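Cross-check.
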Amino acid sequence: MAQAKTDYLVIGSGIAGLSFALKMAAAQPQKTITLITKTQADETNTKYAQGGIAGVWDLNTDSYAQHINDTLVAGDGLCNPATVELVVKEGPDRIKEIIDLGANFDKQPNGDYSLGKEGGHSTHRILHHKDVTGKEMERALLQAVSAYPNIKLLHHCFVLDLLTQHHMGYLVTKSTPDITCYGVYLLNLETQQIETLTAGAVLLAAGGCGQAYRSTTNPTIATGDGIAMVYRAKGRIENMEFIQFHPTALYEPGVSPSFLITEAVRGDGGILRNHKGEAFMEKYDARKDLAPRDIVARAIDQEMKKSGTEFVYLDCRHIAPTAFAHHFPNILEKCQSIGIDPAQHMIPVAPAAHYSCGGVKTDAWGRTSIRRLYACGECASTGLHGANRLASNSLLEAMVFAHRCFLDLSQQDFDSAPPAPLPDWNTLGTKEPEEMILITQSLKELQQIMSDYVGIVRTDVRLERAMKRLDLLFTETESLYRNTIVSPQLCELRNLITVGYLIVKGAQFRKESRGLHYNTDHLQAADLVQNIIL
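Predicted model, tokenized:
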């Protein structure tokens, strides 16, 4: 089995991983940075981020205090105030950096940036590029990364596991002091060979886990690989019960991933209506259509259950067609492709799994509970989002923490060679899988379990039933994993089952309704339950 080493290993090629790699390559040209992606470099959650990036840009109309307060209110008491302050205050500098790299954000005719407003924000502070902001930021970063010869991009490589003392024959548990990450095992999908890659330090920027649900805005690669790997390595995971459902995904039966209708459409005046054509958000929140996402998603869910329908409508008919076409060309093209003209027809929408507010627990510098392993982006839980992420704070968090990981690691000097030889991946006793349906059907079952029992509204009975079903899937899948040659499909299923377990277990521990976790058996006011660490 091939073995290689690198100074810094980055898992994931979204905005978090690329930002870190770029900074480290520029600051330490003598060091090697290897960046792994399991498909093409631009196929990430970043690419599908439509709305924009929030930041205090105009101090005449906005302030750090306002952005901090908006974030804390959305997080419903579970944000880390210190983390919120540092992200909000450091964020504008990170945005300026990506502008300097060539990222284009929309401007007004006078040359000022066109600032949007989304749910939960008290003022206009969101920079955007049409309705494909993430794609534009990804483009600028990939172009900049290509100029550095000390960055090596490995495409079509699937990371199987983090290498720790466990692989050297030591017993590792959650109470083991100084668990250390020395690199990864990875499956090279082009050669079908399993390789060992050691590193001085590893940055985990592997994205989210939306594919645990039947309906999600996330691409098919969002299978929670990073979170699952850290849990298997006995690292700390927190707040996984807080899965954000975006209120407005385009309703297309049987289509996955769901096409996102950015919150910016409501920021520009879009109105949610039920099947009778009634605007309903005023019944649920004084902020109406611009309430935080957890409130809007629950309101839509309630309206659908009352009417027995599978969607509500987003009414944009009163928005000038030229303005809609200018601000949302991607959405307009998609709607027209299925026979919907937003100037004449209301757009059918329904909530879809969108973002994981929990993940790998980190400190203010991106350090995880495992030495030499850092995490940032959606796979990390930094303390910014609390019980519910404020719209357009995700890209901001990724850039701020990528920078902080870079600063901290720049002060370290880790040897890329492990202290003892690492064994090759053991394939003894395994064989080619005989029936792929065993994997594909289990994935469908998992997604149905999570969607039906662990969705926007939960109960104790549903969570108990979900856990029992997941236990059976886990047993079946582990048996398959032990006896067959690994494949990306099998590993993704295994990771999603782990993520599903973490979501359900966190939801069972939280005996209250807070933010994105809404349990009808626990609606009474309760003392604040702190972060749930698994």
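The mean pLDDT is 92. The two ends are 34 Å apart (CA to CA). Passed to J.P. for a second look.
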